[in-house]
Amino acid sequence: MNSQTLLGSKEAASVTSQMALEAFGLLQKLTDQTGTLQEVTRDVAFMKILMVNVCFYGNPEPGHPWVLIDTGLPDAAESIIAAARQRFGSKRLPEAIILTHGHFDHVGAVVELIKKWAVPVYAHKNEIPFLTGKSNYFTPDPTVDGGLMAKISPLYPSQAIQLGDNVHPLPDDGTVPGMAGNGWLLQGIPQDIFPYFGKPMVC
Length: 203
Prior knowledge:
The protein has helices spanning 3-33, 77-88, 104-107, 110-117, 128-131, 148-151, and strands at residues 37-41, 44-49, 52-57, 67-69, 96-98, 121-123, 167-169, 184-187, 199-202.
């Protein structure tokens, strides 16, 4: 082994060690914040599940409808159900589940929640192929950002999930089922260039 190869190995080891330290610190920070239901306004609350949030929209007082926005990571269903019971009571089911997009960290618990709640799921029409087993997501590009999450993005699952006829496209008129007075906007890369890269944003 020549000195140049040895130097390269040391540099690689240093980078790997730094990434490991970053990952450990990030995981510790995320773990500390996971599972706590936090109210933003009277009708908006969220719960962090590692690096993602799920949102509970609706007045918690009896007689008001509510919806769940996104479902976090796999194995999050019981935590989400517990938080919903805490906020809305054990007998109030959501009107619907709204998915901002189909990435694994936003749809992870949706199958289990459908089984438990038997409520409709809505997503933008461009996301439906990824939610009905027709198309997998594109392979992530780890060079788009300097952060750790971007670096490890090729390891993320990109396989489509199969929700069948449980998932429906969001209405074209911009309304959101179960969220009267609110609407959705499409943000992200222009749809006429990359038709599947935009993400609906409830507002």
